[in-house]
Specification:
It holds the Pfam family Acetyltransf_7. One of its GO terms (molecular function) is acyltransferase activity, transferring groups other than amino-acyl groups. This is N-acetyltransferase. It is built from six helices and nine strands. Strands 1, 2, 3, 4, 5, 7 and 9 form a seven-stranded mixed beta sheet that branches. By secondary structure, the chain is α+β, with helices and mostly antiparallel strands. The protein is globular.
C-alpha cells in the first residue's frame, strides 16, 4: 500500500536522493529550477510505502505572468523505479491537481512529456504567449486549466512568486536537525 501525504521535514533527504537518481546531476541547471530556487513550494506531497519510506514526490510552486496573473508550476515529479508499475506517479498527480483545484488555483503549468501528462489534461497550446527564464522545448511546455479561461491573456516571461525559502537564502542546510534545534 502506498500513501500520499503532505511532505514532512523527515522526507527531504530521501526526496533529494530520489531526485538525483531520477534526473541526474544536471537537474539544477533546468530552466524550471530558475522558478523554484530560493522559494518554498505552495504544495509538496510524498508517496510513502508500507514501511514509511519515501517512494515518490511532487511539488507545486507559485508563479505569475508579467502582469501578475497567478498559476502553479508543477515539478519535479519523481517515483522510485521499483514502484512505477503501481501508478504512484498518477496518484501523486491526481492528488496534486485536486488539492490545487480545491485551494482555488486556476491553472497548473509544467515542463514535461506530453504523452505522459496529457492523461491529466495538460496541453501545449494554452500558454503560447508565455516563456520561461531560459530555454524550453515548446512541445514540453504544458498547462492545465483548473478554471476555464484562466490562462487566456497570460503572456510574457513566467516569474517566481510565493514565500521565500529563508533557510536556503542564508545557506542553512534543510535537514531534520534544523527543525529539531529551532523548536
Amino acid at each position: 500500500m502506498i500513501d500520499i501525504v503532505d511532505e514532512a521535514p523527515a522526507h527531504v533527504g530521501a526526496r533529494e536522493v530520489l531526485l538525483d537518481l531520477s534526473f541526474g546531476p544536471d537537474r539544477f541547471a533546468k530552466t524550471s529550477e530558475r522558478l523554484r530556487e530560493g522559494r518554498l513550494p505552495a504544495f509538496a506531497y510524498s508517496a510513502l510505502d508500507q514501511a514509511g519510506a519515501l517512494v515518490g514526490t511532487v511539488r507545486l510552486w507559485n508563479v505569475a505572468d508579467e502582469t501578475g496573473r497567478n498559476a502553479l508550476l508543477l515539478g519535479p515529479l519523481a517515483v522510485e523505479t521499483r514502484c512505477r508499475s503501481q501508478k504512484v506517479g498518477e496518484r501523486l498527480m491526481r492528488h496534486a491537481t485536486n488539492q490545487a483545484a480545491m485551494a482555488g488555483f486556476g491553472a497548473i503549468i509544467l515542463v514535461g512529456d506530453h504523452v505522459y501528462y496529457q492523461r491529466f489534461g495538460f496541453n501545449p497550446g494554452l500558454i503560447d504567449n508565455l516563456t520561461l527564464p531560459g530555454p524550453v522545448e515548446r512541445e514540453r511546455f504544458l498547462a492545465l486549466e483548473l478554471k476555464a479561461g484562466h490562462l487566456a491573456g497570460f503572456a510574457g516571461c513566467l516569474l517566481p512568486t510565493g514565500a521565500a525559502d529563508l533557510a536556503q537564502q542564508v545557506g542553512v542546510p534543510l535537514t531534520l536537525d534544523v527543525f529539531e534545534t529551532a523548536a
